[in-house]
Amino acid sequence: MTNIERHTYDVVVIGAGGAGLRAAIEARLAGKKTAIISKSLFGKAHTVMAEGGAAAAMGNVNSKDNWQVHFRDTMRGGKFLNNFRMAELHAKEAPSRIWELETYGALFDRTKDGKISQRNFGGHEYPRLAHVGDRTGLELIRTLQQKIVSLQQEDFAEHGDYEARIRVFQECTITELFVEDGAVSGAFGYYRESGDFVLFESAAIVLATGGVGKSYKVTSNSWEYTGDGHALALRTGATLINMEFLQFHPTGMVWPPSVKGILVTESVRGDGGVLRNTEGKRFMFDYVPDVFRKQYAETEEEADRWYSDPDNNRRPPELLPRDEVARAINSEVKAGRGTKAGGVLLDIASRLPAEQIRKRLPSMYHQFKELADVDITAAPMEVGPTCHYVMGGIEVDADTTAAAVAGLFAAGEVSGGMHGSNRLGGNSLSDLLVFGKRAGEHAAAHAEKIGRRKPSAAAVEAAVDTALAPLARADAGENPYTLHHELQEIMGVLVGIIRRDGELRESITRLAELKERVKKVGVSGGRKYNPGWHLALDLRNMLVVSECTAKAALERTESRGGHTREDFPKMDPKWRKVNLVCSLDGEDVRLEHQPLPVMRPELQGLFEQTELAKYMTDEEL
Amino acid sequence: MGTKRHFRVWRGDDTGGSLEDFQVEVNEGEVVLDVIHRLQATQTPDLAVRWNCKAGKCGSCSMEINGKPRLGCMTRMSTFNETETVTVTPLRTFPVIRDLVTNVNFNYQKARELPAFAPPAGVAPGEYRMQQVDVERSQEFRKCIECFLCQNVCHVIRDHEENKHAFSGPRFFIRAAELDMHPLDARDDRKELAQAEQGLGYCNITKCCTEVCPEHIKITDNAIIPMKERVVDRRYDPVTWLGRKIFRRDQLDEQPVSASPKPAAAAADSGSNWHQEGPVPQEAPVGADGKLVVAELTLDRAAAGSPFGDDQVFPLPPEQLRYQHPSPPTGDGH
């Protein structure tokens, strides 16, 4: 028999990145006993990787900025596939969420009059990103982490126990959620450290597990990004939307290998960095799509004037939305004008004095100097597309973040809809604050209504058996590292940034084969901090999420945002009305078409008719 | 392509362990963590190591490489000679869990004992105004990625387990300094707290922490020394001393250090796994007024609450029992 540690909580938050911590704070403030479950140590979440900033229309730098403009930029960036209500709430609430962080102790960079400074970023009409040098994500995590500690101190003063009402379970992985009578009843997992099992009885669960990038070969994502939340939600009967849309960050390092996949923040381009091919040409001018023609400079001279005089000049094309830049780089490399490692050159060294670069991009400078002995003030960087962010995720109600299963909520990267087909830089930090808070609030309200629940013993036993299976097979099973490597090959080559019908079909066949082999995965060693076992359990999550992406990518016969089909290079207004919804049918992914919610007229009125015409069908107009 | 290099990696757990030798392929441009990952993928699938961003931003992969506290992801293989043996061991100051993974709970305990940011009264969110030069001083300390290398290298606790309960370590001195220098923090006793509660006095400024900081935070010069100096100012300044003698306590602007309750120090230095505690006792049922029901007469059931929880019905269904009746050994013997 297996020993299982049991806990009862009002609200269980799975994931301790920005969204998870913000949700937990809100649930605890609502008076609910809250658990935070983190795969890593407390404060190490992937959110620390976000460099650029958090987008919020505070209007501190340009007073013309407001939520309507932010909303418009977000919808444009997502090619109008966004859940308009989420984009609206996000634009409206982001400033309050940022200001709130200051009351938790955050120290953003300042404007001359002492307000929070805001910087330019790709796709944003005005300077909008609250930032701290280029380590905004770290500031956000640390601030939320310290707020949680301060709440624990309050509880300690009141109850004599720091963990009376909010507790962090660190280095703990959830492998199963329980649903009984159509509603959530608990979560099951193991401590990475000891391999011991743990069961959380709860009626309200917030998924904030982040993304899926670990299924790809070149990725900026860490080992944690195995699509756990996506897969857990699917297995409980909830649905995923937009899974074909993955953001490949246009500028990840491709060389040297020690920094392969690591992002070069867009602010390098915002601060004057330009992209050149190996012939020395500043090629982005050739890749401005028609819909953006009006907003972007046509000559190098005009583009260069913009950095100092943004009101009277149009923006340089290096600041186009990410997918446009990624696609341009990909085309240059395919045309043979890329570097040996398959990238192009991002040059800031020749554009700004070394001193300025170090001041504006300190951790960027520091990181590459330390990691790879590359001096960004002296030589251009070798960059190319790297898998960065998944727009798709759990289908949620915009206002409450509730998923299709009662008691299940989702916020941050694991949720879908907010960013449509493509996310603007800076919108993810604000997204996880806005919807993290909402998730915590509504999960607490749900717990208030339902009380506590308890999963059945039989379901828990089944979860234990699944978790132990790879260890039982030991060396006789398939090697998890080999399987993971093959999955990354398939996804990287066949379901990468540019997609084709034949390759997608091949990927689906090969994923099906891999799925059978993953069932036979085996690991040696015990349960105590055994990374092989951890990977073996993560594999089935990665696999089901990859299947969603591959199937949805094959189905959507157009190119839009983070989904580019070589055989269907144009955007099709008919597809703008459709969300592809993934659910689980036994072991297989089922794909369905679902109409997009229709934008309210007053929101439609924020756009010029000519702009809408680029996205919408005639009858919609 | 790659060359074979000699690695010695400590393997074991809290009961003991030893260095194991490996010959492993190393390619151009790789860091130590890449090599550890190759070991996992090719030779030792269960080699335990913490890591996360692999970009020097999260501070997870702290280890000791050739005896020096380093981040595995920030230590380039090109910094070693081709023939040099690379020895990788876990952080020494913290109890080993397994292989390169240590129990760093000490740090989370200490974080809790430090009073949090105190927001200024009467300043609404959105109304905070600070100048860049003023926030920059604290921002330096907020660069900290909590890799705990400074904590690991600090000799006050590195070989002195007994100091752990009285000493918070460099990581939390910079946190105290950060709050002390925060333009809007409402507390003004940060330095005194550092002295009285955090054990700032134990530090004798050997600067080891500054040396190992991967973020290059000037821990000693910019945080510890200024904190020490100003604590000294206040404690030994003759005018302050005279003032203390002349004025009544409530006439002094210097507030006495708050007597915050001493947290259970035992848990911090026992090195036990913090989540492995026994079950929490069930709360007693309270009435509508939120108070304990003292008379059985007013309780909705007779006698005291069940120690198993009032919602538990007996007998338990046999398939839910965690007990197996001992039976004579059979062929498949459990």
UniProtKB/TrEMBL annotation, chain A:
Gene Ontology MF, one: steroid dehydrogenase activity, acting on the CH-CH group of donors
Binding, FAD: 15-20, 38-53, 228, 388, 413, 428-429
FAD-dependent oxidoreductase 2 FAD-binding domain residues: 10-429
Domain of life per record: Bacteria
InterPro entries: FAD-dep_OxRdtase_2_FAD-bd, FAD/NAD-bd_sf, Fum_R/Succ_DH_flav-like_C_sf, Fum_Rdtase/Succ_DH_flav-like_C, SdhA/FrdA/AprA, Succ_DH/fumarate_Rdtase_cat_sf
Keywords: FAD, Flavoprotein, Oxidoreductase
Keyword match Secreted: no
Cofactor(s) needed: FAD
UniProt-annotated catalytic positions: 322 (proton acceptor)
Residues the entry annotates as binding substrate: 249, 265, 423
Pfam families per record: FAD_binding_2, Succ_DH_flav_C
Domain Fumarate reductase/succinate dehydrogenase flavoprotein-like C-terminal: 484-598
Protein name as annotated: Succinate dehydrogenase flavoprotein subunit
TrEMBL record, chain B:
UniProt cross-references to InterPro entries, sorted A to Z: 2Fe-2S_ferredoxin-like_sf, 2Fe-2S_ferredoxin-type, 2Fe2S_fd_BS, 4Fe4S_Fe-S-bd, Beta-grasp_dom_sf, Helical_ferredxn, SDH/FRD_Iron-Sulfur, Succ_DH/fum_Rdtase_Fe-S
Gene Ontology CC: plasma membrane
A single GO BP: respiratory electron transport chain
Cofactor dependency: [3Fe-4S] cluster; [4Fe-4S] cluster; [2Fe-2S] cluster
Keywords from the named record: 2Fe-2S, 4Fe-4S, Iron, Iron-sulfur, Metal-binding, Oxidoreductase
Name recorded for this polypeptide: Succinate dehydrogenase/fumarate reductase iron-sulfur subunit
Organism of provenance: Dactylosporangium siamense
GO molecular function: 2 iron, 2 sulfur cluster binding; 4 iron, 4 sulfur cluster binding; electron transfer activity; metal ion binding; oxidoreductase activity
Keyword hit for Metal-binding: yes
Similarity comment: Belongs to the succinate dehydrogenase/fumarate reductase iron-sulfur protein family.
Pathway annotation from the record: Carbohydrate metabolism; tricarboxylic acid cycle
Domain spans labelled 2Fe-2S ferredoxin-type: 5-92
Superkingdom of origin organism: Bacteria
Region (Disordered): 253-287, 304-334
Biased composition (Low complexity): 256-270
CDD domains: fer2
Pfam (any one): Fer2_3
